[in-house]
Amino acid sequence: MPKIHQLRPSDNEKITINLGHVDLGRIDLLVRDGFYSNRTDFIRTAIRNQLAAEQEQVAQSVKRQRMEVGLLDLTRADLEAAKDRNEVLDIRVVGLARIASDVPVDLALATIGSIHVLGALQASRDIKAALKDRIA
After folding, report:
1. pTM for the predicted model, two decimal places
2. Tens digit of pLDDT for each residue in 103-129?
3. Fewer CB near the last or first residue (10 Å), C or N of the chain?
């Protein structure tokens, strides 16, 4: 199995949230008064604080579900090595899993048994389509 790497703070995924007008106004008030540089700064801080408060529960869940945390890069060489060992990979990642753009569909089908990513999966459209029934 390929190594898992730590994600850099600059590795971001964009999300969209809906907030009520009053909550948004409260955030804007804190930004205006200089507590946060902008809305995004407030929301990131709030999320990080909540994740820190729930850190033990997250760690227990990761361990219980046998997941890896960070960045998993699956290269063509990784999958060819798995194929040579007659190994089928069950990928379980909290963070980001990337399948290299030069990985052919048939190699992915032969070596990836399942993909469970909590975060983001980056792969070609063809790979995602071919593995759609194996992606949880």
Report:
1. 0.72
2. 999 999 999 999 999 999 999 999 999
3. C
